Amino acid sequence: MRATTIHGTRDIRVSEVADPAISAPTDAIVKIVAGCICGSDLWPYRGENDITPGDTIGHECVGVVEEVGAEVTSFRPGDFVIVPFDHCDNTCVHCQAGAQSGCVNLGFTQSGQAEYALVTQAEGSLVKTDGMPDEALIPSLLTLADVFPTGYHAAVSAQVRPGGTAVVVGDGAVGLFGVLSASLLGAETIIAMSRHEPRQEIARAFGATDIVAERDKAAVEAVMEITDGVGADAVLECVGTDQSMQTAFRVARPGSMVGMVGAPHGIELPLRRMFTQNIGLHGGMAPTRKYIPELLERVLAGGIDPGRVFDLTVSLDDVAEGYRAMDERRAIKVLVRP
Amino acid sequence: MRATTIHGTRDIRVSEVADPAISAPTDAIVKIVAGCICGSDLWPYRGENDITPGDTIGHECVGVVEEVGAEVTSFRPGDFVIVPFDHCDNTCVHCQAGAQSGCVNLGFTQSGQAEYALVTQAEGSLVKTDGMPDEALIPSLLTLADVFPTGYHAAVSAQVRPGGTAVVVGDGAVGLFGVLSASLLGAETIIAMSRHEPRQEIARAFGATDIVAERDKAAVEAVMEITDGVGADAVLECVGTDQSMQTAFRVARPGSMVGMVGAPHGIELPLRRMFTQNIGLHGGMAPTRKYIPELLERVLAGGIDPGRVFDLTVSLDDVAEGYRAMDERRAIKVLVRP
Q: What keywords were assigned to this record (chains A, B) (predicted)?
């Protein structure tokens, strides 16, 4: 099949690779209808993470079941499915406790920007729609593979509560879904930190009541002014850099929680402040499968348009241009059509 | 008055210092009936924290109100009171949110091992008993000034829930109260990490169902065996060293929370594990005043004997011996009689 592969820093290609094949009875093969590029794909793209040249890249996709292993009984070829980027059996002790990203049979989508993807633990992982969805709904459904549940996990981990104040650090797609999720969870004041007009616009559409374009100290001061000097009840850290994490802890009020979903890079946690101010940190890799059913219901009910984060669509052939556009922040999130 | 003062590493003296005096209308002076030595007093004692030679030391006490400022209306001379080590107005926006240790008017007991203590924000901070308590109850009431609420804060921060499994790292007095608190909050399996027989005995009396005497890797393996390979639902970190914190995160199951109450010293948080396993960290300096009423009720109801952690009582004159005994782990916790 044709798949996106990474060969070095800023070296993305489309290569012919072996078709994924069923090797365990829990596997399924999905023919990808739409994939996309994740902010976390930019880490290896930028040379910040180690890679093996020639490896496939991409972990977000939706598609149609092509083939299933013997133990996959709830899905059959032809089903339209959302593929959570982290696969889980959804039955183990950790899954039962709602920690699906700690599943004892954890797996990952390895070729989300390609023609086909292998899903390990298909029975536990996949979520299907009733019949084939409208074409117009595909982008919104695609967000359920990772970015929407990840933003939602930030909000849940930060313990966003109805009527409270939430600050979202980061205006990437995850941050924008943090805004939407804080809104879905009932936050009354949602402060989005963003200095990019198109992202600010989506943030507002997703429920942000305030935009803070400043950074660092000035950003903290702006949040403190909006919150009458109190700080935020909940902070969603949706970047993963030291700068964003420090900002997150500085705007968090005593006793509150920072919800973390940005893969951490070079962070030194402000432990002294965490201790004296009782500001906690929770979150991590999202238990995607846990959230998909409720978020799918929200998507199908209408009233929200998560798919609008995709401001660029490329064919698989042009996937490298998609990476460039995201790397240069010309695009918020790029949809890839195989 | 006579007060305990610190002059250098392992140099504790009893000195004549100025009597505390009312300087704000929110102040009160308490004549100390009993004080005690805190594990955190050992940090400066051992030279790990900076000190100013001659400063008073000690922050845990109970006593009788001697004098109150003009704005203190709920207490009068003669009232027996528990003095939370961290003083708060109990009315500010942070106190109302249950984060009393982040009070905008935060203060601290500065001379808990002395004849008198000044309480700033007396109206919000003090909790009185109905009349003078029985002499036999004094040690248990004294635990409410810090060590019991601090252990309780570890359990609350770790989100101990009925029927769950809690691991308590640290067998100092705070750790023992972590055990008792996990028990009060309904944990079914309580694993105390302790290698000291007298502490193990109290841990069992406080509700520990299992004792792990091993350390580091062996301790982690022991917990994993007890929990059928799952790990703990809640972990109480009651020490504050890097070794104890690493152990705490290693025994925590995916999605769980480490409750931190040991003042952190030289800790490097395992952020990668926290992220991939969704193990959070919450806690810090305890909002003592928040917990005192419910814990006082428990103490007065009987059935628990928190005062038994005091295995050595010294007169104020002999306070230096009390420090030595705790430093050398000959005593778990030392009560000081002025």
A: Metal-binding, Oxidoreductase, Zinc
Residues B6 and B141 in one domain: yes
Dist. CA A66–CA A80, nearest whole Å: 10
Which pLDDT belongs to residue A15? 98
DSSP element (H, E) containing B180: helix B173-184
At residue A207, φ and ψ (nearest 5 deg) are 125, 0
| Number of compact structural domains in chain A | 2
Q: What is the pLDDT of residues A204-242, one digit of tens each?
A: 999 999 999 999 999 999 999 999 999 999 999 999 999
pLDDT in tens, A23-53: 999 999 999 999 999 999 999 999 999 999 9
- Same domain (yes/no): A255, A318: no
- Rounded to a whole number of angstroms, the distance from the CA of A95 to the nearest CA of chain B is 9
Same domain, B183 and B34: no
H/E element holding A8? strand A2-8
- Check residue A30 and give its pLDDT: 98
A133–chain B Cβ distance below 8 A for any pair? no
ipTM exceeding cut-off 0.90 for this assembly: yes
Q: At what angle do helices B242-251 and B216-226 cross, to 10 degrees?
A: 30
Mutation site, A278, A279, A281, A285, interface B, largest B CB count within 10 A: A278
List A165's β-bridge partners, or say none: A189
Secondary structure class of A291 (helix, strand, coil) = helix
Q: CATH no. for residue A229?
A: 3.40.50.720
pLDDT of residue A146: 98
pLDDT in tens, B153-163: 999 999 999 99
Q: With an 8 Å Cβ cutoff, are B275 and A254 in contact?
A: no
Minimal CA separation from A321 to chain B, in Å: 30
One domain, residues A330 and A249? no
Q: Do A253 and B284 touch (CB under 8 A)?
A: no
Q: Which of A261, A307, A35, A71 is nearest to A149 (CA)?
A: A261
Of B264, B283, B302, the position where a domain reaches its end is B283
Same domain, residue pair A54 and A97: yes
Find the closest chain B residue to A93 by CA distance: B230
Of the candidates A272, A214, A282, which has an alpha carbon nearest to the alpha carbon of residue A243? A214
Pair B54, B109: CB distance under 8 Å = no
DSSP-derived secondary structure letter, A19? P
Query: Which stretch of DSSP H or E encloses residue B281?
Result: strand B280-283
Predicted local confidence at residue A127, as pLDDT: 98
Q: What is the pLDDT of residue A133?
A: 98
Residue A7 sits in which domain range? 2-146+287-337
Regarding whether B133 and B12 lie in a shared domain, the answer is yes
Residues B157 and B291 in one domain: no
Verify that A213 and A193 share a domain, yes or no.
yes
| Residue B302 belongs to domain with CATH number | 3.90.180.10
